[in-house]
Amino acid sequence: MALVTGGSRGIGLACARLLADSGHSVAVTYRETKPPEEGFLAVQADVRDAAACEAVFSEVERELGPVGVLVANAGITRDSLVLRMGEDAWADVLDTDLTGAWRYAKRAAASMVRARYGRIVFVGSVVGLSGAAGQANYAAAKAGLVGLSRALARELASRQVTVNVVAPGAVDTELLAQVGQKRVAEIVASVPMGRMAGAEEVAGAVAFLASPQAGYITGTVLGVDGGLGMGH
């Protein structure tokens, strides 16, 4: 079965839908708003809460069985220029986007190692590779996912557990819309393909890395960015 954190909307919801279409039983976590689908097991949890993480896995394992695919997608932004960025804005993003992903991967890896099979996919960002003004916290967290994934890939490879990162660029989601129309237009203008991605396009990359066909791919970063990162 597959567990998607932050699966109530945007990329997370698109991943949950595609994994379900691929035959997985799917559970999602959400912090505030439940996903619209009735076919998922939806569990309310804040990924910053260690006790909630254990409760999520206990419920998911009881209802659907061991987690064979983890998509660590939950994330937030608290954008600000570094000289104006407060301690809370830094800590909230790092705790959610990086530490939360580590927490769920650690818990999922325990059963994957026993099963000698597993897929962990972190949803990163092109910003974690190239940086972005006003996003020091977000860029640091997403860059951290790359190092985390490669460390885990080395630790878990002998147990046939793969660990990879999908790094989206500009994606047509509510999260991107929060930066405002002017900034969105500037971002799109910098994309060689001249458009934003749909959440479903990112989900396609995630679903591939979660599939049996990707069993020999681990420790990699797959950009889904319309050429924005160009291999960074």
CATH-scheme architecture = 3-Layer(aba) Sandwich
Following the backbone from N to C, one meets helices and strands in this order, namely EHEEHEHEHHEHHHE
Low-pLDDT ranges: none
Number of helices: 8
Q: What is the assigned CATH homologous superfamily?
A: NAD(P)-binding Rossmann-like Domain
Radius of gyration: 17 Å
User: How many domains is the backbone divided into?
Assistant: 1
Please describe the biggest sheet, giving its number of strands, its sense, and whether it closes into a barrel. 7 strands, parallel
Strand content: 5-15%
The average pLDDT value, as a whole number, equals: 94
Which fold name fills CATH's third level, the topology?
Rossmann fold
Based on DSSP secondary structure assignment, what is the total number of beta strands?
Answer: 7
Q: For the record, what CATH class applies?
A: Alpha Beta
Shape: globular
Helix content range: 40-55%
User: What structural class do helix, strand and pairing data support?
Assistant: alpha/beta
Strand order of the largest sheet: 3-2-1-4-5-6-7
Distance between the termini: 32 Å
